[in-house]
C-alpha cells in the first residue's frame, strides 16, 4: 500500500521488449498502487524488428497501465555485452525510486544483456532503493502468485502483443503463474558478475561461500515471501 500523502515509485529495468511482461507482469498488477516506470536497455533490433518490438512494449505497458517508458537504445546484439559505463550513466540520470526490480545477475537463461542490466541497476540504485533481481535458481525473498485474472492478462500479452517472439522462446521461458525476486548485496552481485564476465574469477573459498549461501537460501522459508505488499518490505 502507498504511504498516505506520498505516491510510491517503482522501476522495472529490463534488457529487451517482452522481459517486462515475462518476468514482472504479475508484480506490476499486484502492486497496483506503485507508480511504475519501465526502462528498456536495448533497441530490440536483434532480428531487425527494433521499431516493431518497441511498439509492442509500449502496447504491453498500456495494457499493464504503465505510463512511464524509456528506451536507452543500446544495440540488441547478444554477441556483445552492453557498454557498462554508458549504461550506468544512463541509469544514473533517472529519478529516485522506492523499489527497483531487474533481471537476476545470472541472466535467467544466461543472456549477457540480462546480466549487464542487472549489474548496472544494482550498482546505481543499491544505496538509495530496495533493489530486487529475478530469483532464477535462487530462493526468493519475495514471491508473487498471480491471480487467475492477472495470469490471464499476462498470457494475453504474450500470446497476442508479443506472439512473434513468444513462439521462439516459449521452451526457454514459459508463462509462469509465479514470479520470484531476491535481494542481494552489491558486493555479491559484483563478484558474480565479474566472475561471469571472466574479469576476476572467484576463488575456491568464494565459490564455497556462494554455494553454502545458495543452499541456505534454498532451504529456509521466508515467512514474508508470498504476495508481500510494498508496506511489508
Please name the defining characteristics of this protein:
17% strand, seven-stranded mixed sheet, alpha/beta, Rossmann fold, 233 residues, single chain, 9 helices
Describe this structure in words.
The chain contains nine helices and seven strands. The chain starts with 8 loop residues before the first strand and ends in a 14-residue tail after the last helix. With 233 residues, the chain is α/β, with parallel strands linked by helices. The protein has helices spanning 19-30, 50-63, 84-92, 107-110, 112-125, 148-161, 163-169, 186-196, 204-219, and strands at 9-14, 35-42, 68-74, 99-102, 130-134, 142-145, 178-182. It has a seven-stranded mixed sheet, with helices on both faces. Helix 1 packs antiparallel against helix 6, helix 3 crosses helix 5 (112-125) and helix 6 crosses helix 7 (163-169). The chain has a single domain (9-232), classed as Rossmann fold (3-Layer(aba) Sandwich), CATH 3.40.50.10320. Strand 2 (35-42), helix 2 (50-63) and strand 3 form a beta-alpha-beta unit.
Quick recap:
This protein has 233 residues and is α/β, with parallel strands linked by helices. 43% of the residues lie in helices and 17% in strands.
At CATH's second level, what is the architecture? 3-Layer(aba) Sandwich
Q: Can you tell me the CATH topology? A: Rossmann fold
Which structural category fits the helices and strands?
Answer: alpha/beta
**Largest pleated sheet:** 7 strands, mixed
Number of helices, where a helix is a run of at least 4 consecutive DSSP H or I residues:
9
- Overall domain count: 1
Which outline best applies? Answer: globular
Secondary structure: number of strands: 7
Q: What would the average pLDDT be, to the nearest integer?
A: 89
CATH class label: Alpha Beta
Task: Supply Rg.
Answer: 17 Å
Order of neighbouring strands in the sheet with most strands: 3-2-1-4-5-7-6
* Cα end-to-end separation: 11 Å
Order of helices and strands: EHEHEHEHHEEHHEHH
Report the helical percentage.
40-55%
Which residues sit in consecutive blocks of at least 5 with pLDDT less than 50? 221-225
User: Proportion of β residues?
Assistant: 15-25%
Amino acid at each position: 500500500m502507498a504511504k498516505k500523502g506520498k505516491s510510491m515509485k517503482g522501476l522495472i529495468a529490463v534488457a529487451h521488449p517482452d522481459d517486462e511482461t515475462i518476468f514482472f507482469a504479475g508484480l506490476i498488477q499486484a502492486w497496483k498502487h506503485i507508480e511504475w516506470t519501465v526502462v528498456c536497455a536495448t533497441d530490440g533490433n536483434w532480428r531487425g524488428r527494433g521499431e516493431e518490438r518497441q511498439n509492442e512494449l509500449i502496447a504491453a505497458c498500456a495494457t499493464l497501465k504503465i505510463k512511464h517508458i524509456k528506451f536507452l537504445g543500446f544495440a540488441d546484439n547478444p554477441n556483445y555485452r552492453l557498454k557498462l559505463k554508458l549504461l550506468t550513466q544512463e541509469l544514473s540520470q533517472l529519478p529516485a525510486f522506492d523499489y527497483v526490480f531487474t533481471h537476476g545477475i545470472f541472466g535467467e537463461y544466461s543472456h549477457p544483456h540480462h546480466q549487464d542490466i542487472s549489474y548496472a541497476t544494482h550498482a546505481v540504485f543499491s544505496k538509495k532503493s530496495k533493489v530486487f533481481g529475478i530469483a532464477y535458481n535462487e530462493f526468493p525473498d519475495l514471491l508473487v502468485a498471480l491471480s487467475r485474472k492477472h495470469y490471464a492478462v499476462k498470457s494475453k500479452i504474450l500470446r497476442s502483443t508479443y506472439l512473434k517472439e513468444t513462439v521462439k522462446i516459449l521452451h526457454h521461458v514459459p508463462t509462469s503463474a509465479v514470479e520470484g525476486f531476491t535481494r542481494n548485496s552489491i558486493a555479491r552481485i559484483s563478484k558474480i558478475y565479474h566472475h561471469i564476465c571472466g574479469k576476476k574469477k572467484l576463488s575456491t573459498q568464494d565459490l564455497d561461500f556462494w554455494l553454502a549461501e545458495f543452499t541456505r537460501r534454498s532451504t529456509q522459508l521466508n515467512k514474508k515471501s508470498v504476495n508481500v505488499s510494498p508496506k511489508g518490505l
